[in-house]
Structures are given as C-alpha cells and as structure tokens.
Amino acid sequence: MTVEAAPRGERRRSPGGRRGRRLGLDVTGVVGELMVTAGVFLLAFVAWQLWWTDVEGNRAQAEIVESLDWAPVPTAEPAAPAVDPRRDAPPVLAEPEHAVTFATLLVPRWGADYERPVSEGVDRAGVLDPLGIGHYPGTAMAGDVGNFSISGHRTTYGKPFNRITELVEGDAVVVRTADTWYVYRVTTTEIVSPSDVRVIGPVPADPAAVATERLITLTTCHPMYSAQQRYVVHGVLDYWLPTTAGFPVEITGGA
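Structure tokens predicted for Class E sortase:
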C-alpha cells in the first residue's frame, strides 16, 4: 500500500493551536470590556466630583444661610444705615466649637446673591465639604486684632472661593454675624506653598511682629483642580456696624 503525500502548501491545523488563539481573543475581549467599564466609572466619578458635588454643596450652603434666620440681603437699595460706620473696637465672638456655623461671608465682587456660611474648622470631612467656608482654629475671630483666617474650596462642593483671583485691592469682603457687620478691604494677594503657614499668622508680612491691626485672610487651592499651591488674599478691617443699623452700602450698592 502506498501513502499519498499531502498536497504541497497544505498544513495540518493543531486543535491545541486553535484553542490557544481563541483563548487569546477571549482574554483580549475581556480586558477591552474592563477598560471600557473602568472608563465609564471614571467619567461618572469626574461628573460627580465636578458637577454633582457643586449642586449638593450650593443647596446645602444656601439652606444653612437660611437657617440662621438673619435678615435677608435686600434686592433693592434700602435707606442708609442708622449710624455712621464705626472704627472703634468692635464686638468679637468667642471661638465656637468645631463645625459650628457662626458667620456668613458676602463678597460684592462675586455677585449680589453671594452669601456663604462660615463654620469653625478647616477639615474637609467635617467642614469644607459639607458646610462651605471654614475658620482656621486658633486664628483671630472676625473683627479682633490679629488675622481672621478662612479657607474654602475653589472647585467642587459648592466652590465658595471659585472666583478668588478676581479680587483686587480695595474690594470689600464682608463678614456678618448675628449682631455685627465687619467690612474688610482687600490689600494684597500672593501664591504660596501649602506649608507656608505664615499667611494665616497674626501678622502675615512679618511673623515676628506683634499684631496691631484687624486683618482677614482667605486661602484656597491653586491652580484650578490642583492642590500644589495656595492662592491667598489679605485684607484689613475698614469699619463695622451693628446689624440693627441696617446694611453696609457695599452690600446694597455693590461697592
């Protein structure tokens, strides 16, 4: 018996080889699906972080301001305050417990409807994320000699300091408590490293000096969507008013 040779060019196919190629294609498909799924989750996380936290943060902070039951800022210009601006020593609150809301911040440069709560502490979980603006514990309280230092997000969670780079020298930064208006004026801005705690000290320009002025400092992350640096705005108290006297003209007139 003779055995015929296979036609030239024809190759026998190994069942094991076919199974190996199918397995490789299956693994590639699974990896591709996992990458697509991961991409979807990543996009969902970014949307939640950049958009939904703002929606929730704005709503929560507005509710906190409303819950304070203070006289709302008028939409039309009211009569002039009943007393002249005061530049003597203002009343000063005692530093409250952690996460207690004790004031609001109004910045005419950021719009007539801008008013955000200020609470004690600057930790993200307890204050900055759920409540808005935080007061650095141990720094001066509003109106006191020293440096009333506060911090807020520039992006996400309502981003209360989103427009901080728009502030210029002379702009009003107004703090309101239940009984007192404190009207500060922006003096300087600077960009520093996160470790530069000098900026929230009693005298930021000279850490060795004894405080004699009533200052305010706003800090936030810089640049946008990064925590590599801090953008800092400094100001000094211009005057104060009791809330019973009416509203500062900076609030009603946009000065």
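The chain has a mean pLDDT of 86.
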